[in-house]
Design a protein that fits this description.
This protein is an all-alpha fold. Helix content is 70%, strand content 0%.
Length: 86
């Protein structure tokens, strides 16, 4: 969520809006870090010998495609995505 979505372009956000944006960004970052750390310790990386390689690669590819699609969707809905996404 950017300030362009909350306000008309040209207006500066209020103190409360900046605080909300900061808290939302901090929350999303903490959740992402928690998911990565949890998945690192939960996923059985050593016990993959019993599965075919194509299964592991297919699951990894599906996860990668889902993450890319979610990022493109978020970027598509941003009002200034062309100006900021370089």
């Amino acid at each position: 969520m950017t300030t362009g979505r909350m306000l008309d372009l040209g207006q500066s956000p209020s103190r409360a809006q900046r605080r909300r944006l900061l808290l939302r960004t901090l929350f999303r970052s903490l959740v992402s870090a928690a998911v990565l750390v949890t998945s690192y310790y939960v996923l059985p990386l050593q016990d993959l010998r019993g599965h075919p390689v194509w299964v592991s690669l297919s699951v990894g590819l599906v996860v990668l495609v889902v993450v890319i699609l979610l990022q493109v969707r978020v970027d598509h809905h941003e009002p200034l995505s062309g100006a900021t996404g370089r």
